[in-house]
Amino acid sequence: MADRGVPIIDPTVKHIGVSKLRGFSASKLRDTNDTFVIQENDTPLAVLVSYEKFLIMQEQLMSVFNTLELLMNKDEMKALHAALDDVQAGRTRSLAEIRAELKKRG
Predict the structure, then answer these.
(1) CATH architecture of 1-69
(2) Which of 33, 36, 73, 105 is deepest in the core (most CB within 10 A)?
(3) Mean pLDDT, to the nearest integer, of 71-97?
């Protein structure tokens, strides 16, 4: 998966009935990148995604939660604004400079 992102509108979504799902072997499920909406009588019951897609979705969800947590913390937001002000004012050092300084300190 080159993009590592799960699109909001997933072109691989396929609607299948419960009875058809029973015919899927483990190897067929392992080899597919499709997302399945499992339904019965045209009523969606569940969504089946690959484990990799599930992990990506969990990662993205945690990223959103972490961002919200940062945005709701006044001290974190002050520090972020101060850091952005430093960047804008040119009060930054390269990673190479920081590593060299740390190396000198030993």
Answers:
(1) 3-Layer(aba) Sandwich (3.40)
(2) 36
(3) 94
